[in-house]
Automatic annotation (TrEMBL):
Organism: Ascodesmis nigricans
PANTHER family referenced in this protein's UniProt entry, alphabetically: ATP-DEPENDENT CLP PROTEASE PROTEOLYTIC SUBUNIT (PTHR10381), ATP-DEPENDENT CLP PROTEASE PROTEOLYTIC SUBUNIT, MITOCHONDRIAL (PTHR10381:SF11)
A GO term from the CC aspect: endopeptidase Clp complex
EC supergroup of this enzyme: hydrolase
InterPro entries (UniProt xref): ClpP (IPR001907), ClpP/crotonase-like_dom_sf (IPR029045), ClpP/TepA (IPR023562), ClpP_His_AS (IPR033135), ClpP_Ser_AS (IPR018215)
GO biological-process terms attached to the record: protein quality control for misfolded or incompletely synthesized proteins
Protein name: ATP-dependent Clp protease proteolytic subunit
Active site: S129, H154
Assigned protein family: Belongs to the peptidase S14 family.
């Protein structure tokens, strides 16, 4: 009978477990999504790329999912690589992120500002928290969002447990980070805002439809269709010297 107690306890727990909301789970399961492959004919043979490597050849970087150290390292490496290939050519950074680590996000932000290549940012889906800061960090005039994207801004959050003096140190640090992030937004918004105004806007989660984000100056344009590529005019015909009959 004693051996059956763990089983009976589990059976009593099943009703409670079955009604638990999936969204309430502290860590949702990361579903595996296969990376699509593309094939190209190269020199009479075939070359296979994963889709993100192929997009990288077109100077397109995709920032998808929460911002953490691993994703940050990959984005920074791609930015540096594309700058090395052509420092004067634009890089397009597509963002669909709920935010994440402040330090990992600031590593991407600093790299965008550091490299010579201009970085255009495009929000697809959402750019929340640190994602919204990276969206605003693109070169002014080339920060876009698709019409049904959602942008959310707020102040940083965190927690720490320990002795009182250490808690005070970490509390001071998160306040310093909040002021620094607010200043970054002030620097990148195309509409004038004071630090006090930004602080009030960031006080709670603030969801911005794309038109409101444009009015605020966080993005420059809402895109419904891709802009047509303007072709360069053909070169003028070569000029020939007049024939004066002299050999």
């Amino acid at each position: 009978m004693t051996a059956l107690r763990p089983v009976s306890r589990l059976l009593r727990e099943l009703p409670r477990l079955s009604t638990r909301s999936f969204s309430a789970c502290p860590q949702q399961r990361d579903w595996y999504v296969p990376t699509p492959l593309v094939h190209e004919s190269v020199g009479g043979g075939w070359h296979t790329y994963d889709i993100y490597s192929r997009l990288l050849k077109e100077r397109i970087i995709c920032l998808n999912g929460p911002v953490h150290d691993g994703l940050s390292a990959a984005i920074v490496a791609q930015l540096l690589f594309l700058e090395g290939e052509n420092p004067d050519k634009q890089i397009n950074l597509y963002i669909n992120s709920p935010g994440g680590s402040v330090t990992a996000g600031l590593a991407i932000y600093d790299t965008i500002q550091y490299i010579k290549s201009p970085v255009s940012t495009i929000c697809v889906g959402q750019a929340a928290s640190m994602g919204s800061l990276l969206l605003a960090a693109g070169v002014k005039g080339k920060r876009y969002a698709l019409p049904n994207a959602t942008i959310m801004i707020h102040q940083p959050s965190g927690g720490y447990t320990g002795q009182a003096s250490d808690v005070a140190i970490h509390a001071h640090e998160i306040l310093r980070v909040r002021e620094r992030l607010n200043q970054i937004f002030v620097n990148h918004l195309t509409k004038p805002h004071t630090l006090e105004e930004i602080g009030k806007l960031m006080e709670r989660d603030r969801f911005l439809p794309v038109e409101d984000a444009k009015e605020m100056g966080l993005i420059d344009e809402v895109l419904t269709t891709r802009k047509p590529v303007t072709e360069a005019p053909p070169p003028p015909p070569p000029t020939t010297a007049p024939d004066n009959g002299v050999m």
